[in-house]
TrEMBL record:
GO terms for biological process: sodium-dependent phosphate transport. GO terms for molecular function: sodium:phosphate symporter activity. It comes from Atlanticothrix silvestris CENA357. Its main location: membrane. The chain crosses the membrane at residues 7-27, 79-98, 143-166, 178-200, 206-226, 253-277, 319-345, 365-383. Keywords: Cell membrane, Membrane, Transmembrane, Transmembrane helix. PANTHER family: SODIUM-DEPENDENT PHOSPHATE TRANSPORT PROTEIN 2B, SOLUTE CARRIER FAMILY 34 SODIUM PHOSPHATE , MEMBER 2-RELATED. It is found in: Cell membrane. InterPro entries: Na/Pi_transpt. It holds the Pfam family Na_Pi_cotrans. It comes from the Bacteria. GO terms for cellular component: plasma membrane. This is Na/Pi cotransporter family protein. The keyword Cytoplasm does not apply.
Amino acid sequence: MSFKKIIIKFIFLLILSLFLFISVFNLKNDFYPVVTESSIIGQQVTAISIKKIENQQQFQKTETIGAVNQRKPQEELNTFHIVMGVIAGLVLFLYGVTKMAEGMEALAGDRVRNILRNFTRNPLAGVMTGTIATTILDSSSVTIIIVIAMVSAGLLTFVESLGVVLGSNIGTTFGAQVVAFNIDEYAPIALFIGFLLFLLGRNEPLKQSGLIVLGIGLLFFGLGYIEDATAPFRDYPQFINWMESLGHNTLQGALVGGLFTILIQSSSATLAIVVTLASQGLISLPTGIALMLGAEVGTCADTLVATIGRERPAIRTGVFHLIFNLASASIGLLFASQLAALSLWVSSLAGVGDNVARQIANAQLIFNLLGVLLVLGFLPWIARGLERLIPD
């Protein structure tokens, strides 16, 4: 790509980012209409100050919550603005993930392949390698697709690939942990630094590092946009009740999480959005766990597609990923309440017992760690079973 095209591309990107950034503040004014005395149903409510309107979450905890909740939904929500805001945020997030993955692949792709080739001789080493590779690439799907390609090319054996697949499930939890720290307010800094590095970098590694930082900035900027767009749902009882119902009906919640993950083709994106909504109080821990379990199954779609036209050993690797994630998610559904209790205990030990976003991120980490530990010792028998199921 020529220097002129780079300049034009990034000027367009900056203009788009500035437009979206300004739009956030305009949307906030549309989301929160002025509430007058006549719009409140209830005899106990006589006046609501502007100060209380600006702090809706605190106001909900007062004795007048029943009266406020009786307002008509169309007076509270601008559905078009919310949908457009979520779409814009999701596009920015996915674009940021794509740019970050491209930078990671260009900067460390060959090293990752060498690591996968040289450090997968036993299952435990494979798990550690898969964890590191997925953390670097920030995508379990990318890691497993690379593994499938290497198995198909004969660079990895089917048995060696199994540990890497397990490790990728652990590595993918890193993204949710980062998002749970709620650092989206620093996104403009990452955008600026990444843009300068990519534009002014004198060598390819520096340019790719800039692309990674730029992708991180776009990622968190998109999440911040989604957070602002969904803020009105805090005062919308129907949405809150629906989210709570997903927590009570974990199978339904898992189906929603799985379908959404298949739609956007990224379990990391699903978990990032779940954690973002949880940080606003829109999602409870049980609901977050249900959506997370569904995302664990939905992410297998990409890897199954990657096995089309491949050799039998590569197909076995993709099928193993599906079977493992489906089986572990099924067990997770049966013991969802125990997983929630364990996450609460771990979170309280870490001093974040009242942070639902961190609780959900910890639940994902605990779930994947336990799943890997339970299966790791049985990999030789699982491999033989799959070889019989899918013979050469």
